Amino acid sequence: MTTGRFEADIAVPDEALGAAPGGKWRARWAQAAGHITRRRALPSAEATKAWWAAAVAAQADRVLLWVPVAFGIGSASYLGLKSEPAAWIVWLVAAALAIPAIAAARFTRHRGVLAIAGLAAMAGAGFLVAKLHSDRIAAPIARANLGMVNVDGWVVDIASPSERGERLLIAPVRVSRLSPEETPTRIRVVIAAPGGPEGAPPPGTPIHLLTLLDPPPGPAAPGAYDFARDAWFEGIGGVGIALRQPDWVALPTPPWRLRAEMAVNAMRWKVAKRLAHDIAAVMGSDDGGATGLAVAVTTSHQDWLSADHRDDLRGSGLAHMLAIAGLHTAAVCGFAFFAVRLAIAAWPWLALRVSGKKVAGAVALVAVAGYLVLSGAHPPARRAAITASVAFFAILVDRRAVSLHSLAVAAFIILLIEPDVLLAPGFEMSFCATASLVALAEIWPHHPRTPGLAWPLAALQKTRDWVVALAMVSFVAGAATGPFAIQHFNRVANYGVFANLTADFVASAVMMPALALCLLAQGIGVSHSIGVPVLYVAGWAARTINSLGHVFATAPGAAITMPSAPQIALAISYLGIIFACLWRGSLRWIGLPMAMAVAVWPRPLAPVAWIASDGNDAAVVIDGREVTLKPDKRAYATQLWAQRRDLVLPANAQIAQEAAFDCDRNGCTPTGGARPAIAAWWTKRHPSGDRLKAMCERADVLILRAPVDPPASCKEVIVLRRLDFDIGGAAEVYPAPHGWRIVWSQPMRGKRPWTGAGG
User: Fold this and answer.
1) What's the mean pLDDT when you consider all of the chain?
2) Is 544 helix (H, G, I), strand (E, B) or coil?
3) CA distance 698 to 679
């Protein structure tokens, strides 16, 4: 019988097996299958305790990595509340969490107790800072149902374009029907631009326009993206559509801060137009979208980028190209760093007298600041600039530039300045991807080079190592951002690893350095013979990236679509990725199944109909397709709902609508037998008695915007009036045991400063 660390479940002497007929082979089989008939003895309580103690002790120098995590949990707790807490309650919570940390620091030296108490205090600090930040940036929001107003104001910036035209960010001086105390500090208005970007009024222009002005819209569906919350933290208090072209008007001199902001944005717009003109001249009329992408990654203006190229980049997993963030900042400042360091090393006299690495780090910091200004200092660019600045500052003070500690410092600074970014998809994806790559570098095996290897074999070995490393980088970054892509965009690009492996290399090694040289050449006024080749290289690289995006976006099986999971699944995935990156030791792998929560979490019963937040549009699900009552309206909202619920949009929305509804400009009556049967009367005019009776007889749900009482035939019908939408916002309809159940978006948002009158 075998003894020692294994205990036999079935004791069979090996001698007996060997003596039996065929015993030699039976003995070998029993030995090979020993893991089936034998079990490992359970570890003792003392061994288990020692193992846990060692696992925890290994985290002694990583407590600071969890500081931004704890701070972020506190900020997320504030942002997730359903009602706005009073200031005294927030201060009380922060104090209640800080007092134990102070007491622990005074009365104990136990590192575990100190760490737990300190992290709890940081969570309280995050809760408090998020509240203070929200109160600090509070600004008026336009009233609902304000209607047409006259606006006099300054064009502050030109935002990303819409399908209807150019978006202007305006600092209003006067808004009719609003008192000065009610006037928002910023509004965003879409204007028709027949001449394209060239026809838009540049930043710094004083204009007068007639516009329909509304408060920033809430979620297009319950639980969907809340633009109003982002607008609140960006200081935007109204959105509108101009009813005619703006006119120039004389206005009083604005404050100096507004003048400085407009001057910077005017410079950016001028650079964008000049760069677009130069690249278009070099590349020709058929530039493959090179002009639009080059301008977008340089100045963040997407006005020259066509919708087709934008969709290809998003569909291939290259959407990060459109938001100036880590990739762009790292490429530009990395190019500046290595160029300066190489120049110093090439000058022996200077190399002997200065630290080339530190001088290059200082120049890179200047490049970071310059690129941040040129890009418009939008939230993703600010986050990337802070992260890069921390890395280069670490070089100046002789610390590791890229480490989990420097990333934690950058994350903490960002959350301290803008705690609301915690819920932004860009922040979630960029920091989880960066943390996963740094953690990968920590555990990546480093094999020594074989000495004396012939140079062809050495080159082949180095090429192999680089290819494997790049593939792992793309795979790990894609896996870290996958849960957020599913939750926020309901799409996973199957070829995202290959798209990023190729396109990111072209962008980092060719496009961004070439564009940096273009701007440098324009700034110092070098000769045309030098500038044109660099412009062509930048244009070629941008066109190549667009081509790669098109290939990977249109390839068979390019993407998997999935409906959004409950928010708890996203929180678990978020914490799982962070735990896998920050924990040291084998327990870190617990984070991997947690990270998969969004992908594997059971989806609840899907809704069968959707109604817009103002009751002026609706859609029903028929055979897995979304059929809208107004096919030519609200394309963004209907597409977003289809995306979130993994529905198919019919090839011809008009034909699908006509098969299920009898509609005219005033309303719709269901005819196709789809359930729930939704009838709608869009206008405020009273419908005829026969029309109203027919809608009630055929409908399960009636949207009635006219101030009229429904007839007796509507007794069993769910009637939704204008007031219901003012209070509830967008709605989804679910089947119920005895009819239908309505779920509204406003109760999910709660009563917060950004939820408006309906909150």
Assistant:
1) 85
2) helix
3) 8
**CA 438 distance to own-chain centroid:** 20
Identify whether the C-beta of residue 299 lies closer than 8 Å to the C-beta of residue 272: yes
Distance set, CA 392 to CA 298, 334, 380, 385 (Å): 21, 10, 18, 10
Task: State which residues form the domain around 641.
Answer: 609-749
Rounded distance, CA 44 to CA 610, Å? 58
User: What pLDDT sits at residue 16?
Assistant: 44
- CA distances to 8, 20, 24, 347, 550 from 17, rounded to whole Å, are 15, 6, 7, 79, 66
**68 occurs within a structural domain:** yes
* Dist CA 309 CA 161 (whole Å): 14
Q: Count of residues for the chain?
A: 759
Burial classification of residue 33, based on how many CB atoms lie within 10 Å of its CB (0-12 exposed, 13-18 middle, 19 or more buried)? exposed
The half-sphere exposure of 264 on its side-chain side, counting CA atoms within 13 A, is 14
The count of domains in the chain is 4
| Predicted model pTM | 0.83
Domain shared by 618 and 719, yes or no: yes
Q: pLDDT digit string (tens) for 687-719?
A: 888 888 888 888 899 999 888 888 888 888 999
Tokens of 734: 């679910």
- Residues 328/388, Cβ–Cβ less than 8 Å: no
Rounded to an integer, what is the distance from CA 609 to the centroid of its chain? 27
More confident residue, 262 or 633: 262
